[in-house]
Amino acid sequence: MDDLKEILELIREKRKERGITQADMAAKLGISQSAYKDIEIGKTDLKVRTLQQIADILGIDLFAKKSSNKEQSLIAINPENIYRDINELKRNQEEMKNELNQKLDEILNFFGKKKK
């Protein structure tokens, strides 16, 4: 079983153990129930941020060791996902910076002053 399937199985088990429905999880994550269901069955790409939110809700330590034939990490960090998430954060930061500058320009123009 690959890491993602193992993680999704653990999420499903822990959610059920705690008596939390898919609708409850979706509400806590701010998404639709069908979107959460797609996450849990592996139908949608799972971002690291979303995975951490789910783990926090369920009280799962994603980096804990677990017992099997030998000790292994619960998840393997995928550098491509981390790279994608970092780039997304950088884009969001740049968009926020541009929006802030635009708002500041509007305020300064309102008062008849130009930004230096």
Descriptive account of the structure:
InterPro entries: Cro/C1-type_HTH (IPR001387), Lambda_DNA-bd_dom_sf (IPR010982). Residues 11-63 form the HTH cro/C1-type domain. This is Helix-turn-helix. GO terms for molecular function: DNA binding. The protein is 64% helix and 3% strand. It is mainly alpha-helical and 116 residues long. The protein folds into two domains: 1-58, 434 Repressor (Amino-terminal Domain); 73-115. The protein has helices spanning 3-17, 22-29, 33-40, 48-58, 79-110, and strands at 65-66, 72-73. The protein has five helices and two strands, in the order H-H-H-H-E-E-H. Residues 65-76 have low confidence and may be disordered. A two-stranded antiparallel sheet has the order 1-2. The longest helix is centred in the C-terminal third of the chain and has 32 residues, at 79-110. Strand 1 (65-66) and strand 2 form a beta hairpin.
Please provide a brief summary of the model.
The protein has 116 residues and is mainly α. It has helices at residues 3-17, 22-29, 33-40, 48-58, 79-110; strands at 65-66, 72-73.
